[in-house]
Design goal:
Blueprint lengths: L9 H16 L3 E5 L13 H16 L1 H16 L3 E7 L1 E3 L8 E4 L6 E3 H12 L7 E6 L7 H9 L4
Parallel strand pairs: 1-2, 2-6, 3-5
Antiparallel strand pairs: 4-6
Length: 159
């Protein structure tokens, strides 16, 4: 979802409808995508510019309404009675296929996640009870772009 200043409720309203439908149809398992940006801890390898300037600007100014809604979504999921797992990928970018990504409880220390790895991790988690009622991080461990490469690719990508 593109960033904007207008309040949004796409994530929180969407999960409310999904959880209600799950309840109505007796479905228990929910794996939801959020963002690693919701974890306030700095990245040890990212440096001052990323941790103290770029990331706070994106989370608190540029994408404030998006991240506020993601927080509401996460709170609604945690308060629900479903068997949930919240997945927080890093900055998303494209690779042609899934890699040997890392999936950990809490925050993965890498800053980037290939979309193929995110998709593979979501499918894997559907049948994995180890992370029920947990937040997990997924990160790609190979072929990661630099922050500038990621911004350039995503800003000028033709979708």
């Amino acid at each position: 979802m593109p960033y904007g200043k207008e309040p949004i409720a796409t994530y929180s309203d969407g999960v409310a409808v999904i959880v209600a439908a799950m309840r109505r149809h007796g479905v228990r398992r929910l794996v939801a995508v959020s963002s690693s940006a919701l974890d306030p801890r700095p990245y040890p390898d990212a440096g001052f510019l990323f941790n103290r300037v770029l990331r706070p600007y994106v989370v608190k100014v540029l994408g404030r309404t998006t991240y506020d809604d993601m927080r509401r979504m996460e709170r609604a999921i945690v308060a629900s009675e479903v068997d949930w797992t919240i997945v927080r990928p890093g900055g998303l970018y494209d690779l042609p296929e899934a890699t040997d990504y890392t999936l950990v409880e809490g925050r993965a220390e890498g800053r980037f996640t290939a979309r193929a790895d995110l998709a593979a991790s979501l499918l894997r988690l559907l049948d994995d009870d180890r992370f029920v009622h947990r937040t997990v991080g997924v990160m790609t461990t190979v072929a990661n772009p630099t922050v500038l490469q990621l911004i350039r690719r995503e800003a000028f990508a033709k979708r």
